[in-house]
Specification:
Length: about 240
């Protein structure tokens, strides 16, 4: 019985420690297709869908030409939640390369982590997924609070609705001064010379599941550890009785 009690104590301790592998609370990643009011530590209204007219004061694409390798419009990868000062991040943006490419000079992948080493893929990018990232090898940390993590420059080459999503962890991740965070992922839509009302896009909810999946996996690990410990404890008790 003593062995079983020890096993139960071990399983309980493991279950209590498992969530601690992640630092504090969830950081939400979202796509904001209209960046007014956004900065490293402030967020305006995060739009689910935004209709932009090109050409206009907002967008430099002429409405007919193909890609030229220069950004015409900017969107943000924003973070909110337990946004403690970051020391490392990863974010992989998935998009429709028939309508937009990733390009300079609108890009800023160090807006929240000035002075860090950029780990982002080179621009222009045109293969439907683009990886951004940064890490402090010295100095830091970055700017805390909700705000823009990456300002993404878009080279526009076609009209229509573009849906932006983020790849699941580990391709998208947030590490702060407190450690690694569970992340939740959102999506956004940009209607280029089109309407957000088409197909009810403005009403689409956030993409979910990554944070919940991580927590479920941790809970499952804790349960498995508890079962293993109980089995081992019972085996040990039987062996003592046999001897």
């Amino acid at each position: 019985m003593a062995a079983i009690a020890v096993a139960l104590a071990m399983a309980t301790a493991f279950a209590e420690r498992a969530p601690g592998a992640q630092a504090q609370d969830v950081v939400n990643f979202d796509i904001d297709p209209e960046i007014t009011g956004n900065s490293a530590d402030t967020l305006g209204t995060v739009e689910r869908c935004y209709a932009v007219t090109c050409p206009s004061a907002e967008c430099t694409w002429d409405g007919s030409s193909t890609f030229d390798g220069t950004s015409d419009y900017n969107i943000d990868i924003a973070v909110f939640g337990d946004t403690q000062a970051p020391v490392k991040y990863d974010a992989e943006l998935v998009y429709d390369p028939t309508k937009v490419h990733i390009a300079d000079p609108g890009m800023d992948d160090l807006i929240k982590m000035p002075g860090a080493v950029a780990l982002s893929e080179p621009r222009p990018g045109s293969d439907s997924a683009h990886a951004f990232g940064a890490i402090y090898l010295a100095g830091g940390p970055g700017t805390p609070d909700d705000g823009t993590l990456v300002r993404v420059g878009l080279d526009i080459g076609g009209s229509g609705i573009v849906t932006f999503t983020l790849s699941e962890p580990p391709e998208t991740a947030y590490t702060s001064v407190a450690g690694s965070h569970v992340v939740e992922l959102g999506r956004g839509h940009l209607a280029i010379n089109a309407s957000c009302a088409v197909g009810g896009i403005a009403e689409l909810p956030h993409v979910g599941g990554s944070g919940a999946a991580s927590r479920t996996a941790l809970a499952a690990s804790a349960v498995a550890a508890g079962l293993f410990a109980l089995t081992a404890g019972a085996w040990y008790a039987r062996r003592r009785r046999v001897r």
